[in-house]
Amino acid sequence: MRVDLHMHSTASDGVYNPAEVVDIAVTHQMDVIALTDHDTIQGIPSALDAANQTQLQVIAGVELSSQDETVDRHLLGYLLNITYAPLLDRLDVLRNGRVYRIQEMVQKLIAVGLPIEVERVLALAGTGSVGRPHLARAMLEKGYVSSIQDAFDRYIGDEGVAYVPHSQFAPTEAIRLIHEAGGVAVLAHPGHYAQHAQIIEALVADGLDGIEVYYYDHSPKLISELYWLAKHHDLVMTVGSDFHRREADGSARIGSVRFPPELDIVDSLRQRAERYR
Ligand SMILES: [Zn+2]
Ligand SMILES: [Zn+2]
After folding, report:
1. Residue 5 CA: which ligand is closest?
2. 37 CA to middle of ligand 2, Å?
């Protein structure tokens, strides 16, 4: 089975619209994908539509940005009921928070002599959830930075002068919201967090269902550590490429993250979701 449960579209900060993401997945002969845009499920209906006439199975997902003190924790929600009104309401609040955050970051950039128009940043995000990559693109257009990475390194990264954290949304709340919507809560890219073993243990107490063991930048050593943590805490293991765009050489990393073939990831997710029906 070719499975990739972590990808973004223009509904958040990806480059291709949901139907195009589905096309690319079909080209890569995927069996199952999940669309997991940041703080929105707006792309799901058109991804489902696009997959309708194909063999591809699309799982309704989301990647929620939550914060522990000031540190971001990304939680993936899978098999969500996308018509559950409280989920839609909460996602609206989170998205408005994203606009407010960009306005604050723009103010900080102006204060250091780098004027940017908020409208331009929002236009770059289109109808999707606005985020720091859009702000970085606006800075690049102005010639303030030499690349997106340069914008993060010098100004808007977590240590940058213009950095503003997301509004507070605790991981516990994110997990609860996913469960209420009938979904399964999975910690995204645990390797991005220092002390991930402690974080996972704390989140398990809050009801965490799984961890993204197989992620595109996880080393074999880290994967093996996460594998045993998942076993120990009885967690579902998931796989994700975090696809946003094609690479410079035109390749796309959809489906590029390998996992043991005996692992039935999709079935484990479905079984776990039974708990929240
Ligand atoms: Zn993430
Ligand atoms: Zn992601």
Report:
1. 2
2. 7
Examine the domain organization and report whether 183 and 206 are in the same domain: yes
- What percent of the chain shows pLDDT beyond 90? 87
* Tens digit of each residue's pLDDT (9 = 90 or more) over 192-216: 998 999 999 999 999 999 999 999 9
Is residue 161 one of the residues assigned to a domain?
A: no
Residue 163 domain-assigned (yes or no): no
Terminal-residue alpha carbon distance, the chain: 26
Quote the tokens at residue 118. Answer: 């908020």
Domain membership of residue 207 (yes or no) is yes
The pLDDT, as a whole number, for residue 249 is: 87
How far away, in angstroms, is 7 Cα from ligand 2 center?
6
143 C-alpha to ligand 2 centroid (Å): 27
Residues 272 and 173 in one domain: yes
State residue 70's pLDDT score. Answer: 66
pLDDT digits (tens, 9 = 90+) for 68-112: 876 789 999 999 999 999 999 999 888 888 899 999 999 999 999
Residue 234 buriedness (CB in 10 A; 0-12 / 13-18 / 19+) = exposed
Q: Looking at the CA of 193, which ligand is closest?
A: 1
Q: How far apart are CA 16 and CA 152, in angstroms?
A: 22
Q: Which of 145, 173, 174 is nearest to 157 (CA)?
A: 145
113 alpha carbon to ligand 2 midpoint, in Å? 31
Ligand nearest to the CA of 6: 2
Q: Considering the entire predicted model, what is its pTM?
A: 0.84
**What are the backbone dihedrals phi and psi of residue 232, each rounded to the nearest 5 degrees, phi first?**
-60, -40
